[in-house]
Amino acid sequence: xxxxxxxxxxxxxxxxxxxxxxxxxxxxxxxxxxxxxxxxxxxxxxxxxxxxxxxxxxxxxxxxxxxxxxxxxxxxxxxxxxxxxxxxxxxxxxxxxxxxxxxxxxxxxxxxxxxxxxxxxxxxxxxxxxxxxxxx
Length: 136
Hints:
Blueprint (H helix, E strand, L loop, with lengths): L1 E4 L1 E2 L2 E3 L6 H10 L7 E4 L5 H5 L3 E8 L7 E4 L10 E5 L4 E3 L2 E3 L5 E2 L10 H10 L7 E2 L1
Parallel strand pairs: 3-5, 10-11
Antiparallel strand pairs: 1-7, 2-3, 4-7, 5-6, 8-9
């Protein structure tokens, strides 16, 4: 599983109204069948997590398809309400955001075309993590 802080447009996602249906809609939008789990709170240190803006709030979904969801880009949240989301596998890039763990497991198209652990580690460092966990 890949679990991490859910980022949208480089900012966190507030848990107001968040539920499993919404988690599944986001995971399906990212190419996964469903979410594994979700929770809210501090995933990183409060200082590190506080460096992000809160960019998404009040998500509501009529089904587990993102097209049926509405949301606000203004918020009334604190970072203790930030969503952590777990999917089955992969680097999760969603509209410029990333879900990571202490590193990430990722499936990269054409990974055999010069891609190696140094590149994976560089990507993780750019995203604020120490190193990659694995890649394929």
